[in-house]
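Researcher: I'd like a structural prediction for the single chain below. Treat it as a standalone chain; there are no partners to consider.
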Amino acid sequence: MIPYQDPKENKIRFYPQALYKQMNFPIEHPEFGPNEIMATFNSNTSYWFEGDPLPMLEKQSDMLYVVIHEMIHGLGFTTS
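Model: Treating it as a single chain, here is the predicted structure.
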């Protein structure tokens, strides 16, 4: 998250890099990281994939759901 202090409101807000780049703030931007979103997924987790002929088991996670969930975080949607 990149902090930005709004000169009009004197408040500091934090933005994910992908959103910060789009805001066109009138100040010099900080050094950006090489990636907008970087995600890793645990290969030891049992995932279920769309198209699998077997039904998803209780202990499996839907891989598409997990990927979409993490991409949404990468775009800046978080909870606080």
